[in-house]
Design brief:
- By secondary structure, this protein is α+β, with helices and mostly antiparallel strands.
- It has one domain.
- The chain has one helix at about 1-20, and strands at about 40-45, 50-55, 60-65, 75-80, 80-90, 95-100, 105-110.
- It has a 7-stranded antiparallel sheet, covered by helices on one side.
- Strand 2 and strand 3 form a beta hairpin.
Length: about 110
């Protein structure tokens, strides 16, 4: 049950982060959204959370994670149709713990 609540919280965080990226910033209030390119990074003000645009396998993806030591922390990878929640075992190794696809199902991994 705790794992489900944690995964649900991370998915909600990822979706909120995604909506923040698509929401016009103060500088772009004239109706022009802020467009990010591969390699661009943004950080959440007042929180140790940052996201960057990556292109693994040609698919533009938003990679969000906490600042600092990654071991034991969680991160999200979100593309146009899919979201993955990963748990970092070390700074370079992560295990997928949840995958969901738009208009399809989801699965948890143990």
């Amino acid at each position: 049950m705790r794992l489900f609540l944690l995964i649900s919280s991370l998915v909600v965080l990822a979706l909120c982060t995604h909506s923040v990226v698509l929401r016009p910033a103060r500088a772009a209030e004239a109706g022009n959204p802020i467009l990010l390119r591969p390699g661009d990074v943004f950080q959440v003000s007042g929180a140790p959370l940052a996201c960057r645009v990556v292109v693994p396998g040609g698919l533009k993806t938003l990679d969000c994670r906490v600042s600092g030591s990654l071991a034991g922390s969680y991160g999200t990878l979100m593309s146009a149709r899919r979201v993955q929640v990963v748990r970092f075992r070390s700074a370079r190794l992560a295990k997928i713990v949840f995958v969901a696809t738009q208009h399809a199902g989801f699965r948890t991994c143990r």
